[in-house]
Amino acid sequence: MTIRLAVIPGDGIGPEVVTEGLKVLDAVSARFSLQIERTEYDLGARRWHATGETLPDTVLDELRAHDAILLGAVGDPSVPSGVLERGLLLRLRFELDHYVNLRPVKLFPGVRSPLADIKPEQVDFLVVREGTEGAYAGSGGFLRRGTPQEIATEESVNTAFGVARVVRDAFTRAAGRPRRKLTVVHKNNVLVHAGDLWARTVREVAAEFPGVSVDYCHVDAATIYFVTDPGRFDVIVTDNLFGDILTDLGAAIAGGIGLAASGNINPQRTTPSMFEPVHGSAPDIAGRGLADPTATILSVAMLLDHLGYREASQAVEAAVAEDLLERSTAGRRTTAHIGDAIAAKIVG
Ligand code: NAD
Ligand code: IPM
Ligand code: MN
């Protein structure tokens, strides 16, 4: 079996954490006799400064010919904000139609959450974040820019097709979990148009899933429950922007942004799905071996699971779980040491 893997290390701590993700993938490849054909793509700040390119069409075409993509992070203080984020990362999500941005929120045993007296079984849910629409896809503009009368607008796009497909995916995931509970998170008391479309869509799709119970929560209240009662969540479905914000909070309650994994998934598999840590390029700690590569390693586990290599995926998650249990006594370790320790557990 061969996996054709495209690798985009990107900026800041991206290359540091991707190195560790690949180290773990090499260990998996040795243990499970998986061939991995890797192609690395130089995209991000360096390329933009050198050529002005963010994601050339020719590179996009090449990426399409892979089974999956592993991405570190993009964004750099030397590049105007948004250029790489929109021109590279969001363009990939849009062009490859990654409409399910899957972000598990899971507190592993032994990991310290900032929530007092919380147990791992109380923080174990999935956020299904819509990945191709919402405020990320709308146009915007300025009127009278630079004057005291300036108006800046940013619109949110929600299509019946786009909402239905992500809602149906979330119902399907909920139906396959023991608790079978779906929480829809929106802000339909203010965003009455998009909110109404989401609510009607959920009602319609719910009829296909009589075994799944459905709950609704405004996004502001959801942030309360993330902190006071995370055990109420099983699967959350929400729009692109709410999902972005909620999953950084989810990462925090599950022990930190360095542990939070994600998959940008095209469930129809007509394009390669892309796996990446939830965090960004962290310029404040880049180049010092301080970044935690665990989020990237868990993203590698998601990648293997997506491609159908269940056993390999579970081996990576088990190695991470074991490493996390040992962390309280391990002392401070560098990025590479954490990757070495996890890879060593897989090789056995
Ligand atoms: P960030 O996630 O990069 O950093 C937020 C905080 O978390 C910082 O204190 C950072 O040091 C810490 N942190 C992040 N990853 C860590 C890790 N693996 N181990 C330990 N600590 C970690 O978010 P930001 O500061 O808002 O953004 C920085 C840049 O990254 C910006 O250019 C932003 O646009 C970009 N960004 C990219 C992605 C992505 O590529 N998916 C995601 C978020 C932000
Ligand atoms: C994330 C990031 C991106 C997002 C940015 C960098 C475009 O914050 O992956 O969570 O908002 O989706
Ligand atoms: Mn984010």
TrEMBL record:
How does this polypeptide assemble, per the annotation? Homodimer.
Cofactor needs: Mg(2+); Mn(2+)
**Family, as annotated:** Belongs to the isocitrate and isopropylmalate dehydrogenases family. LeuB type 2 subfamily.
Where does the Isopropylmalate dehydrogenase-like domain start and stop, copy by copy?
A: 4-342
List the EC numbers from the record: 1.1.1.85
**Residues annotated for NAD(+) binding in this entry:** 280-292
This enzyme catalyses:
(2R,3S)-3-isopropylmalate + NAD(+) = 4-methyl-2-oxopentanoate + CO2 + NADH
Task: Cite the binding residues for Mg(2+).
Answer: 220, 244, 248
Query: What Gene3D superfamilies does the record tag this protein with?
Result: Isopropylmalate Dehydrogenase (3.40.718.10)
Write down the position(s) of the site called Important for catalysis. Answer: 136, 187
**Where does this protein reside within or beyond the cell?**
Cytoplasm
Identify the residues that bind substrate: 93, 103, 129, 220
Name the record gives this protein: 3-isopropylmalate dehydrogenase
- The organism's place on the tree of life at top rank: Bacteria
Chief localization class? cytoplasm
Q: Tell me a Gene Ontology molecular-function term this record carries.
A: NAD binding
Note the SMART domains from the entry.
Answer: Iso_dh
- PANTHER family membership: D-MALATE DEHYDROGENASE [DECARBOXYLATING]
Recite the UniProt cofactor note for this protein. Answer: Binds 1 Mg(2+) or Mn(2+) ion per subunit.
Q: What role is this protein assigned? A: Catalyzes the oxidation of 3-carboxy-2-hydroxy-4-methylpentanoate (3-isopropylmalate) to 3-carboxy-4-methyl-2-oxopentanoate. The product decarboxylates to 4-methyl-2 oxopentanoate.
Cellular component, GO annotation: cytoplasm
Q: In Gene Ontology terms, what is a biological process of this protein?
A: L-leucine biosynthetic process
Recorded hits in PROSITE patterns, A to Z, give: IDH_IMDH
Which biological pathway? Amino-acid biosynthesis; L-leucine biosynthesis; L-leucine from 3-methyl-2-oxobutanoate: step 3/4
- Give UniProt keywords alphabetically: Amino-acid biosynthesis, Branched-chain amino acid biosynthesis, Cytoplasm, Leucine biosynthesis, Magnesium, Manganese, Metal-binding, NAD, Oxidoreductase
Organism listed in the record: Acidothermus cellulolyticus (strain ATCC 43068 / DSM 8971 / 11B)
